[in-house]
Design goal:
The protein contains 13 helices and 17 strands. The chain has helices at residues 2-6, 13-18, 23-29, 53-63, 76-82, 134-143, 148-160, 166-175, 182-193, 198-209, 253-268, 278-283, 285-298; strands at residues 10-12, 37-40, 43-45, 71-75, 95-100, 111-116, 124-126, 129-131, 216-217, 220-223, 226-229, 233-235, 240-244, 272-276, 308-310, 314-316, 322-324.
């Protein structure tokens, strides 16, 4: 039938009955050797075999009460994938669905229901499924994470990819539940300070734990009117810059050439440039901290580079003055 095709082979019991199928006809189709299989209570797949990721989402949304108006939107990792936000959050098994507050249906199988009194402000419909906005999906996804590093990485990735803004996430934090929101609150504060990735957040945490001087994060370094670089960390009192070199961004020859050219521009101006891969920050933190400390100490007594740093939290107004953005 057309409904089954439009729903990727998924159909709910109420939908089948609305199409004129009797209870006996449904039982005949879901018998052990029948053509249909039960994938969630009252939700069926019209063929055998494993389900696709799309079918799992449709099935979860049907189970959550799509026909009754109780299902509000798919959120969490499934929503992030639909919005093409590349973040490292668990996504394999569970489908998270926002449902109306007071809805009494419980989680079942791969469908995880989240009662809420805050209906998403924008609906993103794709066929039979409604998805939460990017900021809501990300906020809901990170509330389920336990490792602060994972939370920081997910928030920084969403902002860095331009899919969400700090302001949108702050709004979700303000109107959402306080339970399990501490990690999101900390990650937002770090991103607002200039952290652009999870690896950069790890570097900042290492610097704080090691009681090193706090650097400027992602400042623009100028020599006169020439933009030299935007290093991940900058210690202006020592003329030392640090770069977190993630393999994800340096696999292509062009990216590698750009990194080397940036390093050369800074070094030519007398800047000490340190490079750290993310894995080394995590596994050899003491060595990384010692190298930063040595570089800062080596700057004592030497002439500082003639460069000007503009914080990433500053913007130029039409009058030429700077103000906090």
């Amino acid at each position: 039938m057309g409904l089954v095709r439009r729903q990727d082979g998924v159909i709910g019991r109420a939908q089948a009955e609305a199409c004129g199928m009797t209870a006996a006809a449904i039982r005949h189709r879901i018998r052990p050797d029948g053509p249909w299989q039960v994938v969630l209570p009252g939700v069926y797949l019209s063929h055998g075999g494993a389900m696709t990721a799309r079918q799992r989402i449709v099935a979860a949304f049907c189970y959550a009460g799509r026909l009754a108006g109780q299902a509000l939107a798919v959120t969490g990792s499934a929503a992030l994938a639909w919005h093409r936000i590349r973040v490292a959050v668990p996504s394999a098994d569970q489908v998270d669905v926002l449902v109306s507050a007071g809805f009494r249906r419980r989680d079942a199988g791969f469908a995880r229901l989240h009662p809420t009194a805050v209906t998403p402000s924008v609906a993103f419909w794709d066929g039979p499924v409604c998805y939460a906005p990017p900021a809501r999906g990300l906020a809901d996804a990170v509330r389920l994470l336990r490792d602060p590093a994972d939370v920081r990485a997910a928030v920084a990735a969403g902002v860095q990819q331009g899919r969400v803004t700090v302001g949108q996430l702050a709004e979700e934090l303000a109107i959402g539940p306080r339970r399990q929101s501490a990690g999101l609150r900390r990650a937002l504060a770090e991103v607002a300070q200039g952290v652009r990735s999870g690896a950069e957040a790890d570097l900042v945490m290492l610097i704080r734990r090691s009681r090193l001087p706090i650097p400027m994060l992602n400042p623009r370094l100028f020599a006169g009117d020439e933009l030299l670089a935007i290093p991940d960390a900058w210690w202006p009192q020592a003329g030392v810059a640090a770069e977190v070199d993630s393999r994800e961004w340096h696999l292509s020859p062009d990216s590698w050439k750009a990194t080397m050219a940036r390093h050369a521009r800074m070094s030519a101006r007398g800047i000490i440039v340190l490079h750290f891969p993310p894995s080394r920050i995590r596994t050899a933190g003491r060595e990384v901290a010692a190298e930063i400390r040595s570089a800062l100490a080596a700057a004592c007594g030497r002439d500082l580079p003639a460069v000007r740093a503009v914080s990433c939290a500053q913007v130029l107004t039409p009058g030429g003055t700077r103000r906090a953005s």
